[in-house]
Amino acid sequence: MSTAAVLLLLLPAAQAAAQEPLETKLVITQDGRESGREEFTLRQGRGRGALGSTVIAVARYPASNPLLKLAATLERTPELELAKFQLDVEGPNGTTVILAAGSGARLIVRTVAKGSEAGRELPGGPDVVLLDDAVYSLYTAVVDLATPSGKSLTGVFPRTSRRASFVARREAGVESGATRVTLSGDINGTVVTDSKGRLQRLELPGSRILVTRAPD
């Protein structure tokens, strides 16, 4: 199937997935004050029974009566490469849908808004991760790719067209089955996931952002 066809199939699949119950809740604070909340589910398998993994997330800013709401679906292959990505952004100016799919060394991104549609092709590959400045569970993909010696990655932010080069280094000696990864470069911070690979804590000092798991 062509990359263009995959992009067309993403829209209904991601909308349906975002309506499922989401098991993990996050609290986002900036400068010590809560700015939003995020809920996400990390599960094995992809759409149509394919192998791999899926992250489904919904973020709201603020948590009550949000001015900005984002719904994200990220599917990756067993080799941890991008299979499908969709980000629905609801704001004061309406809804924008961003679709992305990988095709070898290319990343095809399409942006659909009311009355407009645009596509672009970006450098892709196994060392590219899709991120967003308001959907933080996507950083679980960074943790999966991190190595003890440090893995050089490129973060692509489809909503803002930002690109960031950074190194993800997995730390040893973390207790309770958790994983801790330090980020250095264009993105600096620390990511901690639990034994199931779910985001537990994310610190981004440059943005004064702290993301923590809400009590169950």
Written overview of the protein:
With 216 residues, the protein is mostly beta strands. The chain has one domain. Helix content is 10%, strand content 53%. Strands 8-7-6-5-4-3-2-1-15-14-13-12-11-10-9 form a 15-stranded mixed β-sheet. A hairpin with a 3-residue loop joins strand 12 and strand 13. The radius of gyration is 16 Å and the shape is globular. The chain starts with a helix and ends with a strand.
Show the helix and strand layout.
Elements: H1 3-17, E1 24-30, E2 33-44, E3 53-61, E4 68-76, E5 82-91, E6 94-103, E7 106-113, E8 116-123, E9 128-130, H2 140-145, E10 151-157, E11 162-170, E12 179-185, E13 189-193, E14 199-204, E15 209-213
Helical content (DSSP H or I, runs of 4+): under 10%
Widest β-sheet, arrangement of strands:
8-7-6-5-4-3-2-1-15-14-13-12-11-10-9
Which stretches of 5+ consecutive residues score pLDDT under 50? 1-18
Radius of gyration: 16 Å
Order of helices and strands: HEEEEEEEEEHEEEEEE
The chain-level structural class is mainly beta
Count, helices: 2
Give me the count of strands.
15
Distance between the termini: 41 Å
What does the largest sheet look like?
A: 15 strands, mixed
Strand content: over 45%
Categorize the overall geometry: globular
